[in-house]
Amino acid sequence: MSDLDEFRATYFDECSELLLELEEQFSAIQEGDRDGDRLNAVFRAIHSIKGGGGAFGFDALVKFAHSFETLLDYVRDGRVELSEDVVVLCIRSIDIVADFVTAAREGETLAADYGAVEKAQFDALARGDVAGAASPAADEEPMDDFDIDFTPVAVNFDADKPMASVAPSADGASVWTIKFTPFSTLYERANDPLLLFRELGLLGEMSVAPDMAPVPALSAFEPFGVYCSWTITLVSDKASEETIREVFEFVDGDCEIIIEKGESAPVAVEDDLPSFADLAEEAKSERKFVPNGEPDDIVVPEIEAKGAKDQPAPAPVPNVVPIAAKAAEPAEESGSGRPVGMSSIRVDLDKVDRVVNMVGELVITQSMLTQQMDDAIRDRYQELVRGIEVLAQTTRGLQDAVMAIRAQPVKSVFSRMPRLVRELASKTGKRIKLETIGENTEIDKTVIEQLSDPLTHMVRNSADHGIESPDRRMANGKPEIGTVRLSAEQAGGNILIIVEDDGAGINRERVLDIARERGVVGPDQQLTDEQIDNLIFAPGFSTASEVSDISGRGVGMDVVLSNIKKIGGSVHVKSWTGKGTRMTLRLPLTLAVLDVMLVKVAGSPYVIPLSSIVETIQNSRADFGQMPSGGKVLQVRGEYVQVVDLADRFQMVSQKDDAEGFVVLCEAEGNSKIALVVDDIIGQQQVVIKSLEENFERIDGIAGGTILGDGNVALIVDVQSLKSGNAHQNAA
Fold this sequence. Notes:
Blueprint: H1 3-30, H2 36-55, H3 59-77, H4 84-106, H5 116-127, E1 174-182, H6 184-188, H7 193-201, E2 205-211, E3 229-236, H8 241-247, E4 255-261, H9 276-285, H10 349-372, H11 375-380, H12 382-406, E5 407-409, H13 411-414, H14 417-428, E6 432-437, E7 442-444, H15 445-449, H16 452-466, H17 470-475, E8 482-491, E9 494-501, H18 508-517, H19 529-533, H20 557-566, E10 570-576, E11 580-588, E12 593-601, E13 604-609, E14 613-618, E15 624-626, E16 632-636, E17 639-645, H21 646-649, E18 662-667, E19 673-678, E20 680-688, H22 692-695, E21 702-707, E22 713-717, H23 719-724
Parallel strand pairs: 6-8, 13-22, 17-19
Antiparallel strand pairs: 1-3, 1-4, 2-3, 5-7, 8-9, 9-11, 10-11, 12-13, 12-20, 14-18, 15-16, 16-17, 18-19, 21-22
Helix pairs in contact: 1-2, 1-4, 2-3, 3-4, 3-5, 10-12, 14-16, 16-20
């Protein structure tokens, strides 16, 4: 991969983070939090996306982002009111920016008019012409509303002569001279001097004189070099050194600012020299400079200066915008809520995965050493034993630290749901409120990557099928606004993600009728309420009366089930007629290392996840019963629990009498339990999970495999699959 490709990859990674921040900030803004820090945060985010896009020549992205940025800047200044319509426009436009970024990453080209309506609305709002926002002329290029008065700045092409300019008349006001010299880091962080000048221009009358004398000949030009500085003369009756420095606070440390106060005599203008406006007009006619376009696209035209024909023409200045690099985190808490002083680095996930695999091998080696120590070794080599115990503790700490590196808060997925709910409410004519709980709960990154689609389908299902229309809710004595609650919590070695609504619940009669019509359920087959509820996960099943862009083709909930099973999770649904539905995802905390109980079945080792185990009971003390169908049940504190003998389940022959074995009572979905009969309990330990699907195939009743310290392979029991699966399927 070339350096440029690496820069591009870094830029697109940053875009993903910035787009996520835009979603989060605008969600808070829509909820009523109009804090200035949030407005600054969204402005910086879209500005960074634009700056990096300009570096790589993503013109369509830059043009749209520039109009977006201009509107946000006007909102910050108070020149445009942040009304509900403006917020909705901005939220809708985030998707358009995301599409431009995706197209740039994939090397695709969107339609020429893609986002044109929103861009026209941005420009109309910036001009104050709201009425004209809806129907822009096809060939109309909106004016950029810059408040800097560059006239009467003049251009002198002779590097040996001072730059000619005119200071504004003082009229009793203070005259400030600001020398602005940017460093390379200013551009690396996607900052734009023109935006700083415009902000400064709000304080009073201003003229700007660029010092281009340091610009070398083209042969010596360094593309990422910084050659230009500016001298700014500001006349203002309200400016102070403090207010001037506030303009440059975002670039503090990335530039040199010298501020002087005092009377400044006007500098005579050489009348024969062209003004900036003259050059712009002449260049416009040559189609080399577009004053109505983006300021980042300014190109100095090669034209002959009026009245300066004998003066040497300047070397052309390339239109270079340095690549945007990740800015250092601010010392104080930002609008996005980052902790004070937090810094971060970006590391490829492959590198982290390699570390995880190495830690896994270290866990296996440490387990092997522990198993090799018999009583004789413990008595004779006590220092060795202590060293191995310290190694075990250190290995556990290292493993926890590596797992924490891969862990990410589910907030990255939850933050996409508020906008989804708003769009669904708008399309269905319903009033829906989304509540999120536990969004800072952390889970393995590989699990999070598989979570977005299932969660989207679940929330969509609750909004479309669960929540009733306002009229129907009012008629049933419910609040007009329906609630969808999205929550996450850690439960042992699992993460529970729950999507719950206060809607009508599952219409079991209709679900069963449709299932029988489609042959999913036999005509005479009798199902429990829980079994009927789970029919919504059948492939192609849908209760929608007509197909829409929301649902109705029978794809969605089956995707939820299949995707969650791929990462070792499970789905449980529970519904209350007229009150609502709750869908629970149980996901593994990590896909790498697991705390387990090691058991023996028919002479072979098996492992059961420790997070599923409630208690263990000796067979001789267990209260077994017989069902009419022939299956066993276990009575535990007044509750009857299904019994699965693992030896029978895996078609193996137990080497012990029934009375000598053990019962491992495990918890399955929905607080239901299952009793697993094993021959012996060896003990607890940590194991490294190895996928069987990658090397063999998926086996019902088995969640994966692991390598024990003695080199043997042990299979990991899938408790939930045993609870709901067939009773006589071979998994050994």
